[in-house]
Amino acid sequence: MKFKCPTCEMQLKVEPEMAGKIVRCPGCNSKLQIPGDAAAAGGLPAPSGLPSPSGLPAPSVSEPAPSPGAQVEVAPSPMQDFSFEQHRQARGGWEEADPANPNPWMAVAYGTVATATWYGILFPFGKGAYGTNPVSTMDYIHDMFYERTWVNYMETWFFFWALALLFLKAQMLKRQKAAMFLDVLPYELGQDITRENVGSFIDNLYHLPARLRDSLMVNRIRKGLELFEVRQSNGDVGNMLGAQSNIDSARIGGSYSLIKVFLWAIPILGFIGTVLGLSVAIGSIDLSNMNDMEKVMKSFGNVTSGLGTAFDTTLLGLVLAMFLNFPMNALAKSEDDNLNNIDAFCNEVLLPRLNDGGASMAGGSPEGIMDTLVKAVASAQKEFLVDLNTLSAKILEQARNLDKRADAHAERVDREFATALSVMREQMTKSVTDNVEKSSDYLRALASGIQSLNGVLSQLGEKQIIIHQVKKKGWFSRE
Prior knowledge:
The protein is mainly alpha-helical. 63% of the residues lie in helices and 3% in strands.
């Protein structure tokens, strides 16, 4: 169903089931309501994808039919006086921008600003002193982000950096979806796309606004029409569109590489924080003086603090990775759906309207048609088997890499845990041994003192002690 934007007069096209919905015009970005039927849309015929009836005149390159939309109208140009080959070479195409990879420096800036904003929001909620029981839930969240070593700062920054990449990719996807509303193949230029009028369809694409012209759908259709203009073969155009679909899919899939790195790095940072917390906890154990209970209790307080840091860093890493995984997969599905819509448009609208005059069927003879069909089926089967083998090899390689990473990670965790337990056991054994030796020395000295005391007491038991009272001399005594 076709209709015009009431603001910019651009001719648009949507599916009939979208009638009545509110959308934004891809040309002027203003909100508009899709008309309820074709009559309300101006009486323009809905595209059917069927071949044009016989005898329908097709507009030529030099005299293109006027388009109802002001933005898609093929305006006269000096190139119309050129020959066909000169006209084709004078277009030159346009420089294509990356449709899936946003500016990395802009993503870094957005992620840094978002991280600083988040820490600024949490700053007033730090009520209790670090190491004590949290005053409230927000106090606990504040301590988790502020008081758990540098690992949590890095986890938060990576998380918001990845979110910034997803936000910028969503904005790019929004522009790609807006281009789907464009009427890129207007029926006013001809029901069929032939050698005589294909130049008008290509010129129509060149007259689209630059902001919408550089999109996956418009670029793919432009390349298909320009190939048809040169080769005059539906089969070649179909093969090229299929290859371009694979290229676009690979580009979009590769744009998630950095986000997947963040999705892997955030939990790994959590495990690193766990190791650091365990190291602090084990290193803070002090059993050198078991008689000083205050010192012992303080040592165990440091142990619990280190264990809290170890568990909180892992908890934060796993939670952030989980929250990042949902929008990443949702955006990836939206981009895949958009690619599927472009593929469906090319297969259901563009290819049926291409008319090469039977050139792709070897002149229309039954033998040529059968030979072409057999070759096409054989080629398609061969490509399918090659792609299947390649995909199987990639899946097997990814599975082996995943097993290797899992084994390496498990081995590393076991090794570090065993090392930590060994260090802890050695320190505790040394501390207990030192205390036992000191206790033994003390008991030996005490036994020696008691034995000496018993000897003195036994000697005193065999003797008598006589006490004489000395008389004092008086003042007037004769002595």
